[in-house]
Design goal:
The chain has 334 residues and is an all-alpha fold. Helix 2 packs across helix 11 and helix 3 packs antiparallel against helix 11. The longest helix has 51 residues. The chain starts with 8 loop residues before the first helix and ends in an 18-residue tail after the last helix.
């Protein structure tokens, strides 16, 4: 997540510079040919304007859908924050007097669940963008914690060796950690450490965690529909290619009767670049937000949120040696 006021102008231009090079070339070629006498290259601007309207609608639709996915992901982790705090104090207040060791063990297993979940959500998918040159280059400005460490090393801080090996043998480690929490609660209930109401209340929290995990996995594993994504790309490409042809005659007429007659056609390059850059960049912004867990600067900061939850829950147990909060690097925090 970008935590500054805005992306800097130069930063934004550098991020889109490859598209600027291509768009400039696509504008320069028809302009040069037109200037050399290929007047037949002119295309009436009216059909291009109609095409531009269609592109504007579909790019706007994509950006709206991208923002919805991002906002839903943030709501999911907002629910995890609230539910984790509720789980922590309910568990502490109902079980600490009878089995404080189990309370601490379940707290630590919850930290492990948060860790396993964020590692699973950071796993790459074929449709994500972090493997592209544009996004990979920008990612050098910040660190993705899940790429700097291994899940096994992180879980060692929270689980016993026996449980660690058991969890690592499972495919969906976050799910199995939550299943272990349920088993621990059942054992406490059978021993009489929890009454019916307390057991039900805490189990409801586990159900909420499972529900939030499933929602996050749905966003992670189901991409923005490929049919909508593909048609947006194709229509945008057609629009970008045809815009310079549609403006040729308009800028050529601009200099009629003046000393610039015959030369104003070169204005086609910067103005075509400006129009096509706006549309292309709007599409790129939507694409940058459509996968909110991949590790981009526009993602939900799940690592920071997980650390915040851990600090809050450790504080509930009156621990003095709390882990440090995760701070932004170059205005980026994940």
């Amino acid at each position: 997540m970008h935590s500054g006021k805005r992306f800097g102008t130069l930063e934004f231009i550098i991020w889109t510079r490859r598209s600027i090079y291509v768009l400039t070339l696509l504008s320069a070629i028809p302009t040069l040919l037109y200037f050399l006498g290929w007047k037949f290259l002119y295309v009436p601007w009216q059909p291009i304007a109609i095409m531009g309207t269609a592109v504007a609608f579909i790019v706007g639709f994509k950006n709206n859908a991208s923002y919805s996915r991002l906002w839903e992901a943030r709501q999911i982790y907002g629910a995890i924050i609230n539910d984790s705090r509720s789980f922590g104090y309910i568990l502490r207040d109902t079980l600490s007097s009878k089995n404080p060791h189990k309370v601490k063990e379940m707290f630590f297993r919850h930290y492990a669940w948060l860790t396993a979940l964020r590692f699973q959500l950071r796993e790459p998918r074929a449709w994500e963008n972090m493997n592209t040159v544009q996004f990979d280059e920008y990612s050098r400005k910040y660190d993705v914690p899940e790429k700097l460490s291994k899940l096994e090393d992180e879980l060692k801080n929270y689980l016993s060796e026996t449980e660690l090996q058991y969890i690592l043998s499972k495919k969906n480690k976050a799910t199995q950690l939550m299943a272990s929490q349920s088993r621990e609660l059942s054992e406490a209930y059978e021993k009489g450490e929890l009454n019916d109401f307390q057991w039900t209340q805490i189990n409801q929290q586990l159900v909420k965690f499972t529900d939030s995990q499933g929602k996050a996995e749905r966003i992670k594993n189901f991409p923005y529909p490929r049919n909508f994504s593909s048609i947006t790309t194709y229509l945008l490409l057609l629009f970008i290619v045809f815009v310079p042809f549609g403006l040729l005659k308009e800028f050529d007429k601009l200099g009629e009767g003046t000393t610039l007659e015959g030369w104003t056609v070169w204005f086609n390059i910067p103005f075509s670049l400006l129009v096509t850059w706006c549309f292309h960049t709007l599409d790129s912004v939507g694409e940058a937000s459509v996968n909110p867990f991949e590790g981009s600067p526009n993602d939900v900061p799940i690592t920071q949120i997980s650390r915040t939850i851990e600090i809050d829950m450790r504080d509930m147990l009156d621990e003095s040696d709390l882990p440090p909060a995760i701070l932004p690097k170059n205005n980026i925090v994940l």
